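Ticket #4471: structure export looks truncated?
Reporter: QA, pipeline team
Priority: medium

Steps to reproduce: submit the single chain below to the structure queue and open the exported record.
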Amino acid sequence: MHDTGGQGWRITMDTSSPLLIALYLRDVAGLDGAGTPTLSHATPKVRHSDHSHLTAEVGGIGALKTEWEAWWQQLLKAYPEPATELSPPDFAAFSNSPALQRVLQAHYGSALDWARERVEEYQEIEAEREASGATLMLGDLVEDRLLEVGRGPRDFQLSIIELPLNEPRAWYLEPDKMIMSQRLLSQPEIFRSYVQPVVEMLA
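Actual output as written to the record:
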């Protein structure tokens, strides 16, 4: 995790294993367009497999999409805390979401492995950033804003959740979270175009 702050303000950047697992399940089930905001595909690409046989008796793919979206919203709202306990092999906490429960039972092992690999990659990216000073840009954005308005900062916190997404962009979630492609910070102009308006609004 990267943590930048000053008097009354704090910006954190980190990834999330539960969100990575959910992202894997979305892509493996082919739930394109599911969730708010609608995120691009994960990278490396997760191979889609047909889940109609798994979910046919519990509402089909439509039910799976609805259940996944509800879970995704819980995860985002609870972040950085875990929302629902992932307890294999039964996943009892998902008994009210039987389609999602079946997909978790079928793919949890591969989802967990994939998520762990992505966390390791993210830790390497973090180390590169610390060495290069790339994250100093966050503090610069706040300082630039304060110079512009000629006052001290309002108290605010901003959590940036970084995920391995194949589209270099970010999504703002009111009031204090962003989802971002984890490679975006390596493209300073694009990074600034997404984060600066949020900092200006909060600070």
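Status: closed, not a bug. The export was complete when the record was re-opened. Leaving a note from the reviewer for reference: DSSP finds six helices and five strands in the chain.
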